[in-house]
Specification:
single chain; 315 residues; alpha/beta; inorganic pyrophosphatase (n-terminal core); Diaminopimelate Epimerase, Chain A, domain 1; six-stranded parallel beta sheet; six-stranded mixed beta sheet; 39% helix; 21% strand; globular; binds manganese (II) ion
Length: 315
Amino acid sequence: MKLSSLIKGKKVLLLTHHNGDADGVACAIAIAEAYSEDALISIGAPESINRSARNMATALGYTVEINPNADNFDGVVLLDVPSPDQVSPYNFDKLKVIAIIDHHYSRKEFSNKTKNYLLEERPSCCEVIYKLLKEDGKELSEKSAKAMVAGIFADTQHTSLGDVDTFKTLAEIVSKYKLKTKEAVQLLRTSPDVSEKIAVLKAMKNVKLERLGDFLLASSLAGSFEAVVAGTLIRAGADIAVVGAEKSDGCRISGRAAWRMESKIHLGKQVFEPLGKKLGGSGGGHGGAASANLTCEAKKGVEEAAKIIKGIIQA
Ligand SMILES: [Mn+2]
């Protein structure tokens, strides 16, 4: 894919996924830096971005607009977006999509939307973007080099989920742009605000614990920050955590699995994708971190996810 020819002279919106993360925002920053003379570029996210992504954008002098009007652009480039529901509240079918660039496992939903669909199963989307920029004859700036390293760190849990090519890419960026990795890591460091701390601590009161042989499944309902709650339960000792929260048009369920579950279960493929199909909505994600947006109540979504997980673990 030659992005330069696709966006040349256009007013382009780079749109990452719902609750955009540092990987997606780093991809957007790298493109905005590299193609600033080719196109008029803005960065946006549906609904929200997470704290480290916001921290990174602010530190590098970028603004990520929340729910910008897509009609004000000639077209949209989707970054780090694994399925159409991840751009909600945008109506995916109505978006003028120029290209889709992603790194999650193969999904079919996008195949009719654009022929400019670049999908490589890599640990981070930044790695896909880095390769794309190289092929397009683009260099990283000091800002985007930092953002890329931070984005890779964010999506690979500080390289532990990376593979040999992840390390090669990191080594190349760090040496070529004389980067201090510490400065990239600092872009991701944030402290929770009080609403998040309250949401997490309140959700701890409702934790339901189930023993599945040697493994512990923890589930809970949260007012918000359901993904943070699930991560907290894993750090507290659960092997798998499922947490739901009510949303305006249904609910959102987040799941996390400890690394020791890697050979036992793939949350995205085996739990959250079927969950979305079964309960109305859609879901997916990685082996150890996945989510679904459903049309039912959060309680029902959590119970159904727990049921699917039990079926897999106890099989
Ligand atoms: Mn990603």
